[in-house]
Amino acid sequence: MEMFEVLKTRTDGQVLFAAIDNPPINLLGPALVRDLVSLIRILDKGDTYKVVVFSSANPDFFIPHVDITKIAEYREIAAQLVGEPSLALLFRRLSETKAITIAQIAGRVRGAGSEFILACDMRFASREKAIFGQLEAAFGQVAGGGAIQHLTRTLGRGRAFEVLTSSNDYDADLAERYGWINRAIPDRDLEDFVDALALRIAKFPHQGLMDIKERINAISLASVDDLRKDSELFGRATQFPETKERYKKIIGLGLQQYGDTELNLGRVLGEF
Amino acid sequence: MEMFEVLKTRTDGQVLFAAIDNPPINLLGPALVRDLVSLIRILDKGDTYKVVVFSSANPDFFIPHVDITKIAEYREIAAQLVGEPSLALLFRRLSETKAITIAQIAGRVRGAGSEFILACDMRFASREKAIFGQLEAAFGQVAGGGAIQHLTRTLGRGRAFEVLTSSNDYDADLAERYGWINRAIPDRDLEDFVDALALRIAKFPHQGLMDIKERINAISLASVDDLRKDSELFGRATQFPETKERYKKIIGLGLQQYGDTELNLGRVLGEF
Amino acid sequence: MEMFEVLKTRTDGQVLFAAIDNPPINLLGPALVRDLVSLIRILDKGDTYKVVVFSSANPDFFIPHVDITKIAEYREIAAQLVGEPSLALLFRRLSETKAITIAQIAGRVRGAGSEFILACDMRFASREKAIFGQLEAAFGQVAGGGAIQHLTRTLGRGRAFEVLTSSNDYDADLAERYGWINRAIPDRDLEDFVDALALRIAKFPHQGLMDIKERINAISLASVDDLRKDSELFGRATQFPETKERYKKIIGLGLQQYGDTELNLGRVLGEF
Questions:
Q1: Would you call B235 an interface residue with chain C, using a CB distance cutoff of 8 Å?
Q2: B203 neighbourhood in chain A, CB within 8 Å
Q3: Calpha distance C50→B163 (Å, rounded)
Q4: Nearest one of A150, A135, A162, A166 to A63, comparing CA atoms
C-alpha cells in the first residue's frame, strides 16, 4: 500500500480503516490534503477497497479546521487532483470515488473538518465526545468547502441558517436531531457499530454499491459550479482586512494549539 | 426609527426586536402588511440592523392566520413592494432582505402565520405554548403564502402532505421532530436563548452573513413562479362557493375573535 | 365496486380502506400489481374516494418484497397502465392519482414494499411491529422502484446511503427519526389514529386537496426519466451471474416462505 503521511491505515478484507494522526490537533493542512489526493487516486481504481472508515488518532480532535496559515498551500495541492485550488472540489471528488466512505467521529469537527465528514457517505459520532461547528461566520467568511450545500439540503433552510451563522458548537445529540450525522452512538459502542456496518457492506457486490452511489450522488451532490462559487467566496474573504484581523486575534488567543481556545472554540468565538 | 403601526420595536446594538401587537388576536391584515413593507425597506438598506427577532405581544397568538375579511386589501399593500398582490412574494422578499431574521414563537401560528415564520431564517418556539397549523385544506384552499414550498422541502413529502391536508394543530415538540422549527425550547428559557443567539450573530461581520444568506437562499428558496402559482391558487379558491360557505360558517363559530374557536381551531375544523 | 384479487376493501364515506391479503406473506407479485392497476384506474376518476388507507391483513408482513420468481411477469402487468415494464413508474402513477393515500404499517416492509409505502402520500407505523428495509444491495442491485429518489430527498444523503447500502432492518422509532415514515405510533393506537386522520381529511373539499397534492408533487416527485433509470438498473442486475447466484442461495435459505429467513431478513443478509 502507498505510504501516507498522516493517515494511519489498516485493512480488514476490502475495508480500509484510516485514522487521522496529525499532531498536535489534526489540522487540515498540506499533509492531510496530500494524503487525501493519494487515497482518492487509489480508491478511484475501484479494485481494492469497497469501504473506507475515517477516524481520528486524537481523542479531542477529529479535524478542528484548516491550518489558516497554509490555505494557499493546501489549495494548490488539491489542484493537483481537481485542476483548481479548491477544497470543496477535492471533497466532491472524494464523494464520487469508488468506495463507500464512513466517518467515525469523536472529538471536534469544525469548519472544513465538518465539511470533510459531510463529503463522506455516512457519519456516526460518539454521543459523549463529538463536537460539531461551522466557524466561518465569526471570521466574516462563508463555509467554502461544501457545508452550505450539504447542510442546506440535509438540515433544511432554518437549521442550516442557524448552524452556519452562529459559529457555535453542537453536541452529537443535537447534530443527530438536525440530521448533520446519521446517528449519535454511545462512545463505548461506536467503534464496534461502525466496524460491523463497514464489514457488512463490504460483503455485498461492488457494482451494485457503486450503482447506488452514482444514483444517490446524482440527486444529492451540489454542482461543481456551486461549490466553486462557495470556495471562491471563502478565498476572497481571506483577503478582507476584517477577516485578517480576526484571524490574527484568534491566533493570539491560542488557535491551532492544543488548549482551551481550540477545545471550547464555540464559546470563545461568542466572546470575540 | 420609522414608526410602525403594530410592531413594537426596541433595539440592542444592531439587533432589532419586533413584537407583533395587533389586538385582539394578531391577525395578519393591512396594518401588519404595511409594517412589513416598511420594515423590509429599512432592512434592504443593510446599514442599521444585522439581525431581527420577531415575537408576539399576545401570549395566546403569534399570528393565527390572515384577516379573511381583508384579503384583497392586504394583498394590494403587498403589491406596493413586490409589484403584484401576493403575500407569498412579500414573504419571499423578507427572506431575501439584508438581515438575519429569527422568529421567537409562543402562541398560535397558523395559516399565513406559519408561512411568515417559515420565511424567517430561523424559528425557535416555546415548548409549552407554541401551536402550529396550516388550515387551508379545511376551506378547500392551498396554502398560498409559501408553506407548500417550504414544508415540502424541509419536512419531506410525507410530513408535508400530513400537515397541509390535515389542517390540524401541532405542538412544538412534534413541530421540532418534523423540522417545522429549529428547536422547541422550554418557555422559561426561550427569550434568553434567542437574545443570546441574536446578539452573538450580530457580532460577526455583516458581509459574511449576507454571503451565507445569499448562498443558502440560492438553494432553498422557491422560485417566484412557484410562489406566484400557489398564491393564485389560494386567491382563486376564495371565490369558490364552497370556500365562501366555509368561511361564513367558521366566522359564525367565532373565527377572528379571542375565544374557543381560535384557541382550538385544529379541533374545531375536524368537527366542521 | 370492482372486485380485487388480494385487496380486501371496505368503505366509510369517501374513504377506502384496503388491506393487502396475499398469503402466505403478502409478496408483491402479479396479483397485487393487477389490483393496483385496477385501483389507480378507479381513483383517477376522482369521483368516489378522497382518501385511501392501505394496511395488511397479515400481522408479520405488510409487503416483504417482490416475488423474485415473477419479476418479468408483474412488470408486464404494470406496463398495461404506464406503457413500460416498471414498478417505479407504476408507483409514480399511484403518487399522482386523485386521492390522498395513507399507509398504515405493521409487519415487514422491505424492498419494493418500502417503495410502495414511499409512493403513498403519508406513512404511519406500529412502533412495536413495523420493520423497514431496502435489501437490494445485498443482491448487487439498486432499489429500482423509487426508494433511491424518495429516501435521498427525504432522509438526506447520509441516511439514504446507510439504508440503501446496509440492506439492514430498521425499527419504527429509527424510521421515524430518519424521516422514512411520518410517525411511529403505539400499536394499540395506530388504527384509531389513521382512521381519524383519514375521515378528517375526507371532510375537506376535494379540489383543494388535489391542488395541494399537485403542488407538493411538483416539488417532491422524481422525474419519469430518473425513475426509469433506477428501474432499468434493477432489471439489468437481475441478469448478472452474481445476483442470480445470491437469489438462488437466499431462496435455498427460505426466502418467500413464512419463516425465520423472512422474519429476520436483515440479520440473515448480514451473514450471507
A1: no
A2: 138, 270, 272
A3: 17
A4: A135
More confident residue, C136 or B3: C136
Residue A233 touches partner B, C-beta closer than 8 Å: yes
pTM of the prediction?
0.98
Quick check: bond before A24 cis, omega within 30?
A: yes
In this structure, the number of other CB atoms found within 10 A of the CB of residue C248 comes to: 11
- What percent of chain A shows pLDDT beyond 70? 99
Homologous superfamily of A7-270: 2-enoyl-CoA Hydratase; Chain A, domain 1 (3.90.226.10)
Interface predicted TM-score of the whole assembly (ipTM), two decimals: 0.98
Mean pLDDT of chain A: 97
Contacts of A10-15 spanning 24+ positions with Cβ under 8 A? A11/A49, A12/A195, A12/A199, A13/A199, A13/A202, A14/A48, A14/A49, A14/A50, A14/A51, A14/A202, A15/A49, A15/A50, A15/A51, A15/A52, A15/A53, A15/A198, A15/A199, A15/A202
Q: Quote the pLDDT of residue A1.
A: 52
Indicate yes or no: CB of B211 within 8 angstroms of CB of A237. yes
Measured between CA atoms, how close is B63 to chain C, in angstroms? 22
pLDDT tens per residue across span B10-24: 999 999 999 999 999
Asked if A125 and A185 touch (Cβ cutoff 8 Å), the reply is yes
Contact criterion met (CB below 8 Å) for C20 and C57: yes
The answer to whether A232 and A148 are in contact (CB under 8 A) is no
| pLDDT score for B1 | 52
pLDDT per residue as tens digits for the range C98-107: 999 999 999 9
Q: How far apart are CA A269 and CA B9, in angstroms?
A: 28
Residue B148: its chain C contacts at CB < 8 A? 212, 215-216, 219
Cβ(C77)–Cβ(C83) under 8 Å? no
Asked whether the beta carbons of C5 and C35 are under 8 A apart, the reply is yes
Interchain contact B172–A (C-beta under 8 A): no
Inter-chain CB proximity A140 and B182 less than 8 Å:
no
**Is the pLDDT reported for residue C108 higher than 70?**
yes
Nearest to A63 by CA among A113, A8, A131: A113
Chains that touch A (3 or more CB pairs under 8 A): B, C
Q: Which of A120, C54, A82, A165 is nearest to B215 (CA)?
A: A165
Average pLDDT, chain C: 97
- pLDDT tens, A173-199? 999 999 999 999 999 999 999 999 999
Contact A137 B208 (CB under 8 A): yes
Q: State residue A117 phi and psi, 5-degree precision.
A: -65, -30
